């Protein structure tokens, strides 16, 4: 492992210029497309003109909306500039410039162009992912044909001293400054062209001048921020962990035990297996793939979270009319995500095949429907004032979740001695029985007619501002975001807890887990209860949002859909489950119907399909396409789209260098701060 002795040795002048050119060009192309081809410049101009022309009705004068648009633009541009500083500082310089340019272009440009042309978020992102997958496939085949072998990950690691850290920070500052300066010049030239053509109002010339001056200054400080983030992942000469003489990290209540000694970070990396060393080395700065490192992922997640949180405000600007329908559909996607997270506990963590998960969703849905509607009067004779009973929605989220958890225990108790196919058959039967039972309970559930007029939630007014739950889908959108955040937090804590480790042990080898002292009965029952708990939360939300509930809305095939989300995303992987839920929901309920709309348009190239095949529609071949996707995933990516690190190592032994994995505290080396913070070794 090399040790940097000076800034010149780590970053010679020629290499620094190459790194700057490589990443400045790579990042300027997608940022320029976002600004001038798609929507970025339009948002900025619309916001400024709204302030400059307060009486003009053609502009949006809602102060809250304008502030959120400004916030989103600031986050996007600031994150990209800071990312440029991070990437230059984190890049080892060993990958060719052309390869880096191709990676960035194929990952970003097709999606931006599709967004501009289709005005459909999920179709654009989906096609962009397909193009990216094809690119990776072709690139890997070219590498195989050329007998390319990636360099060993540990041989290229640098132990960075104080001079090296100063060099990294200085290069990041330069990258941020020059990136922002070049972008300011490009923006200035483009705006002058717009002004000469008459498409830029005179009022915006002031903004053009101010932006041209401020961008380089902001770039310097944002580049430094990117460098500071990169420094968090360098290996310092004195970095290390303390381990006991038997090779384990041990720390008692009073500190490190007397038989402990310090091992350097590089020695610890060398002691790992090849697969683990490769995963660890990917995040150490500098490295060969900064775009896939943990530091870069932080930037991506920051932009993604900003987009998700501000989406209801951005949707009409980005995609035009029809915002209510799109926001409502993404609210429905949210409860699918919660269902997938719950089923991931049962199937992904504990390895218990559950084909009757829809039953718990039905129970949670009816739990609120029977309380938060006029049905409560039929059951109890007590008049349910809508203004009062709407407030009961909030405690019913927990109450219904607890009720479904109890039903999960009732289902789990008779199946404790069953495994594999036998367990799947029993749970499938349970999923078939519950909807039929609710259909036959006319006195309590109105039978096949279902329950109508389910009350929406109620929230207090702040001054004159009141949340409109009745006609706007936006409150439900933010409500499901909060519920998803809470469920993800609970999933992470469960996964890294003692109970979560017991679930994983049962999944890997039930006999060995029992021999190790794990109580199989309690652990399995907890898995069924936890999974059902999340289904109850999703059910309450679904009932309140939909307003009506009928047994015909649920069937056993829904359980297959939920299971497909978990399997496609990655068993036991929380990010994978999120992605799997989005993919399955988008294909099953959104993309195919949108493709049919395109096929009916004579001006669209898809219109040729109904001409060649009478009565053709994408809806009619839904199951065919979905089946082909499932088969393809199982053949070419059996571990899922974003697998957990443990499962990826089991199936592929990390032979594919371009795959993304999700790591947890259980995948960290013993003795590291991440392991100690999560597992609490004592």
Automatic annotation (TrEMBL):
The keyword Membrane applies. The chain crosses the membrane at residues 20-39, 66-89, 96-115, 121-138, 175-197, 203-223, 299-321, 333-353, 358-377, 389-410, 422-441, 476-494, 525-544, 560-587. It comes from the Bacteria. This is Branched-chain amino acid ABC transporter permease. Its main location: membrane. InterPro entries: ABC_transp_permease, LivM-like. One of its GO terms (molecular function) is branched-chain amino acid transmembrane transporter activity. It is found in: Cell membrane. It is a multi-pass membrane protein. One of its GO terms (cellular component) is plasma membrane. Residues 650-682 are annotated as: Disordered. Keywords: Cell membrane, Membrane, Transmembrane, Transmembrane helix. Pfam families: BPD_transp_2.
């Amino acid at each position: 492992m090399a040790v940097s002795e000076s800034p010149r040795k780590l970053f010679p002048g020629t290499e620094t210029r190459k790194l700057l050119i490589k990443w400045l060009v790579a990042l300027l192309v997608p940022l320029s497309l976002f600004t001038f081809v798609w929507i970025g410049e339009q948002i900025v101009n619309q916001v400024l003109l709204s302030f400059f022309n307060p009486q003009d009705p053609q502009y949006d004068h809602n102060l809250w909306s304008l502030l959120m648009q400004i916030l989103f633009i600031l986050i996007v541009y600031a994150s990209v500039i800071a990312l440029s500083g991070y990437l230059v500082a984190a890049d080892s310089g060993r990958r060719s410039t052309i390869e880096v340019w191709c990676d960035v272009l194929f990952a970003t440009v097709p999606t931006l162009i599709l967004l501009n042309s289709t005005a459909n978020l999920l179709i654009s992102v989906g096609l962009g992912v397909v193009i990216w997958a094809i690119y990776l496939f072709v690139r890997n085949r070219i590498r195989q044909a050329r007998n390319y072998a990636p360099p060993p990950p540990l041989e290229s690691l640098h132990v960075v001293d104080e001079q090296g850290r100063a060099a990294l920070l200085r290069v990041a500052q330069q990258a941020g400054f020059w990136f922002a300066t070049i972008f300011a010049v490009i923006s200035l030239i483009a705006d002058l062209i717009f002004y000469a053509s008459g498409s830029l109002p005179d009022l915006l010339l002031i903004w053009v001048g101010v932006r041209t001056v401020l961008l380089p200054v902001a770039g310097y400080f944002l580049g430094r921020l990117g460098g500071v983030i990169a420094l968090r992942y360098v290996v310092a000469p004195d970095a290390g962990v303390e381990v006991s003489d038997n090779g384990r990290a041990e720390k008692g209540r009073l500190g490190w035990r007397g038989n402990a000694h310090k091992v350097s970070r590089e020695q610890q990396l060398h002691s790992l297996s090849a697969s683990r060393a490769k995963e660890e080395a990917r995040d150490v700065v500098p490295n060969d793939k900064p775009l896939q490192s943990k530091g870069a992922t932080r930037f991506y997640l920051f932009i993604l979270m900003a987009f998700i949180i501000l989406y209801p405000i951005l949707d009409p600007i980005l995609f035009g009319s029809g915002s209510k329908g799109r926001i409502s559909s993404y609210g429905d996607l949210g409860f699918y995500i919660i269902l997938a997270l719950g089923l991931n506990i049962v199937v992904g963590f504990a390895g218990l095949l559950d084909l009757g998960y829809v039953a718990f969703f039905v129970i949670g849905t009816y739990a609120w429907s029977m309380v938060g509607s006029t049905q409560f009067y039929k059951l109890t004779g007590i008049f349910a004032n809508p203004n009062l009973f709407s407030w009961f929605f909030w405690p019913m989220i927990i109450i219904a979740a607890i009720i479904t958890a109890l039903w999960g225990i009732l289902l789990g108790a008779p199946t404790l001695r069953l495994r594999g196919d036998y367990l799947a058959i029993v749970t499938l039967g349970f999923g078939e029985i519950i909807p039929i039972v609710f259909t036959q309970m006319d006195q309590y559930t109105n039978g096949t007619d279902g329950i109508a007029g389910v009350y929406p939630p109620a929230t207090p007014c702040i001054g004159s501002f009141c949340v409109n739950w009745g006609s706007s889908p936006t409150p439900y959108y933010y409500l499901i975001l909060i519920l998803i955040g809470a469920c993800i937090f609970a999933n992470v804590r469960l996964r890294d807890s003692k109970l979560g480790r017991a679930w994983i042990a049962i999944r890997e080898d039930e006999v060995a887990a029992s021999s190790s002292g794990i109580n199989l009965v309690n652990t399995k029952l907890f898995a069924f209860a936890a999974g059902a708990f999340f289904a109850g939360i999703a059910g309450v939300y679904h009932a309140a949002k939909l307003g009506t509930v009928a047994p015909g809305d649920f069937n056993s095939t829904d359980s297959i859909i939920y299971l497909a989300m978990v399997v496609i995303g990655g068993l036991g992987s929380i990010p994978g489950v999120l992605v799997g839920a989005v993919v399955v929901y988008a294909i099953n309920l959104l993309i195919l119907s949108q493709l049919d709309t395109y096929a009916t348009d004579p001006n669209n190239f898809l219109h040729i399909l109904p001409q060649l095949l009478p009565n053709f529609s994408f809806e009619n071949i839904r199951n065919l396409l979905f089946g082909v996707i499932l088969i393809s995933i199982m053949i070419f990516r059996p571990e899922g789209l974003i697998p957990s690190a443990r499962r990826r190592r089991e199936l592929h032994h990390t032979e594919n260098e371009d795959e993304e994995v999700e790591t947890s505290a259980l995948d960290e080396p013993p003795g590291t701060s991440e392991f100690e913070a999560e597992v609490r070794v004592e």
